[in-house]
Predict the structure.
Amino acid sequence: MVHQYGQAAKAASEKLDQEGHAALANRADELSSRLDRASTYLREKRVSEIYYDTEHFTRRRPEIVFGMMFALGLVAARFLKASDRGVAGRRRQLNVASEEYPYQRSAQASTISPGSENTLEQI
């Protein structure tokens, strides 16, 4: 799969170069070569070697790992928040269309007469 993204980046690089966007073509070509290297790495390494390399990188550069974890957390929170709004919106539409609001007060409960001793329980 990573190899396919590398091929797509290479094709984009060639097209950008043909259209005269040399700076963007160079960036896309750089991305393509990095994706190809990542693809080769993942294909040639065993899972235990990838685990060891990841552990070693985390020990050498914890700030990068924690930064990536923070960024992924923000993205996940944003995704969950957006999906929750969609569900809540659909629920609200169903409630409005099918039944009355459950929190409507009766006219008697909201009337306070002056001079009488009303408590919160009466309201």
Observations:
- Residues 1-44 form one domain.
- Residues 62-98 form the longest helix (37 residues).
- Helices lie at 2-18, 22-44, 47-60, 62-98.
- The chain has a mean pLDDT of 81.
